[in-house]
Amino acid sequence: MSTAAVLLAALVLDRIVGDPDWLWRRLPHPVVWVGNLIGWADRRLNRETDSHETREKAGFATIALLILGAIISGHLLHGFLGLGGFAGTIAEIIIVAVLLAQKSLAEHVSAVARGLRTEGLAGGRKAVSMIVGRDPERLDVAGVSRAAIESLAENASDGVVAPAFWYLVFGLPGLLAYKVINTADSMIGHKTPRHLAFGRASAQIDDLANWVPARLTALMILAAGGFSAFAVRAQIVLRDAGLHRSPNAGWPESAMAAVTGLALGGPRIYKDDVANEPFMNAAGRTVSRAADIDRALDVFDRAMLIGWLGVAVVALVV
After folding, report:
1. 156 and 305 in contact (C-beta within 8 Å)?
2. How many CA atoms lie within 13 A of 278 on its CB side?
3. List of residues 6+ apart from 280 with CB closer than 8 A
């Protein structure tokens, strides 16, 4: 099977099966292994007594070695699976599916809407605290809903489109390298006193790795909204994507804002920080609720289907 055909099968498998709790309660998820390694490097090499320059070099060396290890591991694993014929292909499909996050992302976001409906604001806050870093106790119903929708849009890129893109381009080495990069960014790529120097390289490389996928995700979300207002919504994305403090997250988030008619972004309160950002699609509704989360999930499902169709076309042509 071609790389595109394996990816298509993995996307379908991930959407159907997702990340079964019964399995990952017994076995550590591969991302957990990567996270443990990054945590070890952070504890051993990111010493507060070292200079800013030394910590920056240590962080660069850490992410460089991790990426190199991922690429080598990907090549070796692909070669080993190639010896298994059809069984090896099935194993690769499963591995790729494990490193995608369609179903798990949809389930986590859906849990926020369900929490708001069944337990009110307290239930929504509890559910949204599992997927965002904001202070849930400072969020009202609209804030909880917006946080869930923004997380859905951003993670559609980081958790699905980006790993799928890099697998399609470079196979298992590309997929494993991206997961290392993205995991490192989520753990150490923060502008905090501890990680400003050590995590700088990880954050910059993550920005580069997500540049194309973020814009591709925005295009998929716009297409999922239909073509009757595509041009108008695309103009909103082109105008507002740069308002986000991330060079990439603003693209899928502004696309989701345009399609759902919501104003997303705006001031965000974290435990140790307040991000005073402007709204994307500021003319949209700022008051959102559980029904808007449901609508965003429908857009997400259609966008993923469009992605499947794109991969299927590549599988047929290449």
Report:
1. no
2. 10
3. 236, 240, 241, 243, 244, 250, 253, 254, 257, 263, 264, 265
Q: How many CA atoms lie within 13 A of 141 on its CB side?
A: 14
pLDDT tens string 261-301: 999 998 776 665 666 789 999 999 989 999 999 999 999 99
CB of 98 within 8 A of CB of 167?
Answer: no
Cα–Cα distances (Å) from 282 to 145, 150, 200, 210, 214, in that order, read 16, 14, 31, 25, 21
Q: How far apart are alpha carbons 179 and 225 in whole angstroms?
A: 29
Pairing of strands 268-269, 274-275: antiparallel
Output the CA torsion sign for 86, 89, 94, 95. positive
Tokens of 174: 């590309």
CA distances from 153 to 63, 149, 198, 222 (A): 26, 6, 28, 12
- The number of residues making up the chain comes to 318
Q: How far apart are CA 112 and CA 71, in angstroms?
A: 36
Rounded to an integer, the average pLDDT of 166-186 is: 97
pLDDT greater than 70 at residue 211: yes
Q: How far apart are CA 233 and CA 264, in angstroms?
A: 14
Q: pLDDT, tens digit, for every residue of 77-104?
A: 999 999 999 999 999 999 999 999 999 9
Q: What percent of the chain has pLDDT over 70?
A: 97
The pLDDT assigned to 174 comes to 98
Position 204 scores a pLDDT of 97
Q: For residue 186, what are its two tokens?
A: 């989520």
Strands (E) across the chain are located at 264-265, 268-269, 274-275, 279-280
